[in-house]
Amino acid sequence: MENRIITLDEFIIRKQKDFSYATGELTGLLRDIGVAAKIVNREVNKAGLVNILGTEEESNSSGDTVQKLDMYANQKLIDCLRNSGECCAIASEENEDFVTIPPVEDKAAKYVVVFDPLDGSSNIDVNVSVGTIFGIYRRQSGDNDTVVLDDFLQKGTDLIAAGYVIYGTSTILVYSTGNGVNGFTLDPSIGEFCLSHRDIKIPASGGYYSVNQGYYLKFDLEMRRYIDYCSDSNLRLRYIGSMVSDIHRILIQGGIFLYPNTRKYPKGKLRLLYECNPLSFIMEQAGGKAINTKLARILEMEPRELHQRSTIVMGSPDMVDEMKEFVMRYSTESPTIV
Ligand code: P6P
User: Which of 2, 69, 75, 305 is deepest in the core (most CB within 10 A)?
Assistant: First the structure.
């Protein structure tokens, strides 16, 4: 019976029993994100064949040049979340401000969703894997009130669910609702995400470190010393420049991912709300750790704005603890240990 196909829909519905208060809304929301992932996957897989490669003549809130597929993925996610009737607003890397979603059949939706619709999209034109990252919060304002910014400025510890989709050699959706992490591989022959990675647990240590070595001389001393240590320890450097892909490898095989501050990004490059928090939620649920370079736990960080950046170090718990030692030993500033 163990190798019986378990689809994402079936799994989500079964797990709904994990939530005493669950009334099916979160289930519906997760299923709609799965639908959006299938639609985006279809376009990502044929991006080279249709006029959807290349860039729009505009840039997003991060100042990044927007890829056409970014905008396509962004719109599809918004459309699917709008249809779900369970989401009252979204915040996306591609939108300067949050987007309120009108009620469906006057139903007061309880959830807000943050997402990076196509993370690593600069890799699209060279056929390197990219991903979607999402996080789901319970709105803080009254169910019938206007959505406000504070509905989004919630700590990662308040996430109800989070996950990512990696459009790679296969398309895998990985998510958690706070009861462990499970991965589902899309079977194109039946158009279903099927359970393929049950109860993912990250190895306590691993053989990979993932950092943009090109910035080595721009990192603080403690980061350079730690990277030297990784190299001296014969760890293998793997860095794709697509966070979802780099994190997925580490989640499955063990290792550590670092994006420290640089001169160009003094507060770090990656976005707290829709990159760091959802992936840190997944990482901790799988037994890993996620901190910033001042040693504060990512999920405890107080968001102050939608597109806030953060430094991040995440991965195998023993390796993150080891990295902390280098900060304690070499940092010229006092760390914020939470
Ligand atoms: P760099 C992609 O643009 C992204 O947001 C993440 O997916 C990735 O980890 C990072 O930026 C890569 O940044 O500066 O190394 O090119």
Answer: 69
Fold of 8-197: Fructose-1,6-Bisphosphatase; Chain A, domain 1 (3.30.540)
Query: Which part of the chain has CATH 3.30.540.10?
Result: 8-197
Element (H, E) at 172: strand 171-176
C-alpha radius of gyration, the chain, whole number = 19
* Whether the CB of 62 sits within 6 Å of ligand 1: no
Q: Name the closest-CA residue to atom 2, ligand 1.
A: 120
Distance 328 CA to ligand 1 centre (A): 27
The model carries a pTM of: 0.93
Reading the chain (338 residues) residue by residue, the pLDDT tens digits are 456 899 999 998 888 776 655 667 888 899 999 999 999 999 888 765 555 555 565 656 666 655 688 898 999 999 999 888 899 999 999 999 999 999 888 888 999 999 999 998 888 878 899 999 999 999 999 988 999 999 999 999 999 999 999 998 899 999 999 999 999 999 999 999 999 999 999 999 999 999 999 999 999 999 999 999 999 999 999 999 999 999 999 999 999 999 999 999 999 999 999 999 999 999 999 999 999 999 999 999 999 999 999 999 999 999 999 999 999 999 887 666 54
Among 64, 119, 262, name the best residue to mutate to test ligand 1's pocket (greatest count of ligand atoms within 8 A of Cβ): 119
Q: What is the SS3 assignment for 306?
A: coil
